[in-house]
UniProtKB/TrEMBL annotation:
Catalysed conversion reaction: Hydrolysis of DNA containing ring-opened 7-methylguanine residues, releasing 2,6-diamino-4-hydroxy-5-(N-methyl)formamidopyrimidine; 2'-deoxyribonucleotide-(2'-deoxyribose 5'-phosphate)-2'-deoxyribonucleotide-DNA = a 3'-end 2'-deoxyribonucleotide-(2,3-dehydro-2,3-deoxyribose 5'-phosphate)-DNA + a 5'-end 5'-phospho-2'-deoxyribonucleoside-DNA + H(+)
Physiological role: Involved in base excision repair of DNA damaged by oxidation or by mutagenic agents. Acts as DNA glycosylase that recognizes and removes damaged bases. Has a preference for oxidized purines, such as 7,8-dihydro-8-oxoguanine (8-oxoG). Has AP (apurinic/apyrimidinic) lyase activity and introduces nicks in the DNA strand. Cleaves the DNA backbone by beta-delta elimination to generate a single-strand break at the site of the removed base with both 3'- and 5'-phosphates.
Domain Formamidopyrimidine-DNA glycosylase catalytic: 2-116
Record note on quaternary structure: Monomer.
Gene expressing this chain: mutM
Biological source species: Candidatus Accumulibacter phosphatis
Protein's UniProt name: Formamidopyrimidine-DNA glycosylase
Amino acids binding DNA: H95, R113, R156
UniProt KW keywords: DNA damage, DNA repair, DNA-binding, Glycosidase, Hydrolase, Lyase, Metal-binding, Multifunctional enzyme, Zinc, Zinc-finger
EC number(s) from the headed UniProt entry: 3.2.2.23, 4.2.99.18
Active site: P2, E3, K58, R265
Amino acid sequence: MPELPEVEVSRQGLLPYLPGRCLVGAIVRTPKLRHEIPLGLDARLAGLRIDAILRRGKYLLLDCASSRGGGWLLIHLGMSGSLRLVPPGTPAQRHDHVDLVFQHTVLRLRDPRRFGALLWHEGTDVEAHPALAALGREPLADGFCGEWLYAVTRGRRVAVKPLLMDSHLVVGIGNIYAAESLFRAGISPLRRAGRISLQRYRVLAEAIRATLAASIAAGGSTVRDYVHSDGGAGCFQLSCAVYDRQAEPCLVCATPIRVLRQAGRSSFYCPACQR
C-alpha cells in the first residue's frame, strides 16, 4: 500500500511537469473507485490551471483554486494505485481508470484493486474536505516531536505500533515504516504507548523522521504495484532491518527476527534490540 513516502515521491516526480500547466480535460473509464468519481469531471477540469501539488497524509492535492470555477483535486492511491505521465494517445491498459489530460502530456491513474480515490473540492479551503478534516499530525512537519507523542499517549493502553499507524493521530506511517522506526528507536512493538518515557519518545520521533526521509530518498518501497510517475520502482524495502526478515539474523546483534500479528498486520522486530 502506498504510504507517505511513496505519495511524496509521486508528488516530487510530478513537480517539474505539471504546476503552471492547464488541463484540457479528463477521460474517465470507470464510474467508481473507492468512491464515486465526480460527474462531469471532463467539463469541470477543462481550462483549469494547476498552481501547486501538495500532500496531506496519503492524499495528493492538485491546487486549481485560483482559476475561475476552480478548486482542488484530491487523489488517493489506495492499496495498489500509481500515477504515471504518458504521452497523449498512449493506449490505456486494463486498470488505467482515469486520465488527466494536458496539452502535451497525460497524468494516468492506474489502480488494479480500485481502492484509490479521485475527489473534487470546490473553493480554496481544501483542509475542510471530509477526507482530510479528521487526519492526524504530519510526521515530517515541525509540530511532530517527542514531546507531542508523549503528551498524546498518556493513559493509552494500546501497543505503540498500532497507535503509530492510526491516521487520526499521525498520518502516513504504514506497516513497513512503523516496524523500521521502532527498530531504529529500540522500542518493542508490544510496549504499551502510555508506558514509554519522554526521552524514548524523543528518540522515536527522530527515528520516524529518519526512516521516512530514507525511504523518500530511496524512491519509496515497491512491494507489489507501486511505481514512480516515470514508471520506476522504489527500493527502500531492500534495506529494511526487520520488515519481512522473519527468522533472519538481526543486522545489529544476530538474534533471529520475530514476527507476530497486531491489529491484523504482521509486526517484525528484534527481541534483543527492542525493549
